[in-house]
Hints:
about 550 residues; alpha/beta
Amino acid sequence: MQSFRFIQLATKNLVQNSNKKRTVGVFKVPRLCSRDSVFLYRNFSTMSHFKLNADAVRVQVSQASTLEGLDLCVIPICEESVSSSKDEAKVLNLSLTDALFSTTAPFKAKLGETKCILKNQNQSVVIVGSGTMTYSDFHSAALLGKRIAEQFENGTESVGIACTNFWRPSSHYLEVTLRSVLRHRHVNFRHKSSGSPSSVNKVVLVHDSNSKIPEEEFSTLVNKSKALADGSILCSELVSAPANIATPEALASVAKEIEDASDGLISTKILERSDCERLGMGAYLAVARGSELPPKFIHMKYSNGTPTRKIAFVGKGLTFDSGGYNIKAGASSLIELMKFDMGGAGAVIGAARAISLLKPVNKEIHFIVASCENMISGNSVRPGDIIQASNGKTIEVNNTDAEGRLTLADGLVYAAKQGVDDIIDLATLTGACVVALGEEYAGLFSPSNSFAREIENAAASSGELIHRLPLHERYRDQLKSNVADMKNTGSSYAGSITAALFLKAYVSDDVNWAHLDIAGPVWDSKKEEGTGFGVASLVELILNDQANSKM
């Protein structure tokens, strides 16, 4: 990812030597010698090292008149229901009058507001504000689900969520809320010597006879919520894992595991360095040159029925980004967090997992990741080098810390050759996008208004935040080179736009293309873990298309 500052430094010692095995959490990390360097490395054999299966949580639907028998009862309440309540406010068999209308601390039901109204050795009851009754604002649904999950305590095993007179969400609103509950229930403790997963193993959606949701829709929304939570957790686990664990080889292993669990709907091909050389992927391999770890070009193909649409998702897969010879330095460089520079790859692989569980019909989907590290060695690409991408274009590398676009260039060319109609790439590409949009929004770039709207609708439906930014063609002049077809970076202005314009040069004109810069929302700086951003939007795009094709 291109940092805010570009600083060149000479370096000598690149890897810290380790003379013996050490234990990181429950993982024994063996010594792996390569030339004169010793790497802490972990060979993963199962996907479960990267995620907790959402299927570990039983989700039930119950039409009941009581909340008894549950360790924790959560009662969402919207603002309108509080203001319209009369003398007695009840949810099922529980009176809320005192809690809602206390003269000392009345409950306003603002989004995320909480109040514990009962706590004893058998049960806790918490009311949670859901904000205004705008059941088309699915980002609020995601925030509500996260807030509900924050009420879970150690030892809590069963949780009930009341969908009754104070909160009657639509089917999709409840689905997004439940997905967020399951996603945020997950506890990342893998690299600690002590810790345990969430004790919550059962979630019950409690509703009454006046529910807005038909009985037959509950099963569909539960299954979709669990699949999307599963994919998002996998994405978060991959992005959160340190670079000595989530290596290119580890990503390839996870892709193969997804294939094995897909009931034959996904086929996976891993291109090795020699395969990429034969395909002329000079841009991607230039970035990979500096690392002792071999690059892995991952291509997963989902096929189910006769496709009405062929689409490719391409994720940036830099498992660690040192910046190369334009090394990341200083407090603002975030070099210690550059494990998350494969956030795009995490989203693509997580989406593949969710799609394999949901099994949409008549779809052909390609999940592509050009995975490698951007490291420094005597073999690394240098500032000023000229390299050639697989479409024949030559690139003057004027900044080695703008490496993600080089790997994506060959990934996009490869994707277009699969005969797809549409391509979306996702990347933690620029710090400039974070400056422009902050840490909650992703930037969307596309020359196609209709394709952009389709992606915007999918993101809105998923509860993820994106904002379209311009592809201003006059800024392409910043990428002009006197010695090659183009440079890999422009000036210090409009960095996210020039990065997108660079990528556009590697997409065929007959293919719809969009770029999502997810550098901001990929990481939760408070919890210090990946958010799983992007999975839900990609899956919603596929499912929305399937729904539209049936109309």
